[in-house]
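Hey, sorry to bother you again with one of my protein questions. A protein chain has come my way and I'm curious about its shape. I'm sending you its amino acid sequence along with the backbone structure tokens. I owe you a coffee for this, so here goes:
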Amino acid sequence: MRPLLITIPAGCLLACLGGLLWVQAKARSEMPNSNSVDIVTNQPRHLVTEAMTAETEARLNKLEPAITASDVNGTTVSIAPSNGQRPQFVYFVLDGCPCSFDAEPLFHDLYKQFKGHVDFVSVTNGTLEKAKLWNSELSVPYPVVPDPKEEIIHAYGAKAAVYSILITRDGHIAKMWPGYSKDLLLEMNKLMSKLAAVPEKPFDTKYAPKVKATGCAFSSADLK
């Protein structure tokens, strides 16, 4: 598979250039609907702030707005339904953000861990065409919803790429994370196991940063 060509916003490029050397996506030949991403990074490029942590913790147990949208295939996706059959994990991708590339394979691994027990949805601010390219090049195994006007992103309070929300079956926030790290991924694994009522299994955090890292800011966000 050819490398994915991306256009990186100037602000994000300046923040990420020191750490990102090259990102290349390719499908695993032995596993359909899966992907492997070769990543070479140094230090995390954006760190989670106290304000981000406080804002996401304040949303705990809140009832999220139920939103119906179409994914890149035109399939209707219900986000935060009040009568979901399974818990739902929603995470946010910023078009052209290297931080999104870094985190994406880790979310794929979480999906494999909870396939059939937790529903995954990816929301990106890219256009339909760019969202389709992202979905194809990274072999995303769950719905990718384009949100170019950032209406869904704003509704759920995502300030930057790599924000994510775990939603209960009745549409409430079980937890919102402003980024990722080894510890946060283990926390996601633990809480998903609890909500899905399945035994907790070890999760390999691989190359995830030890410190809490977030992504580049969405245009609609006041990132502190």
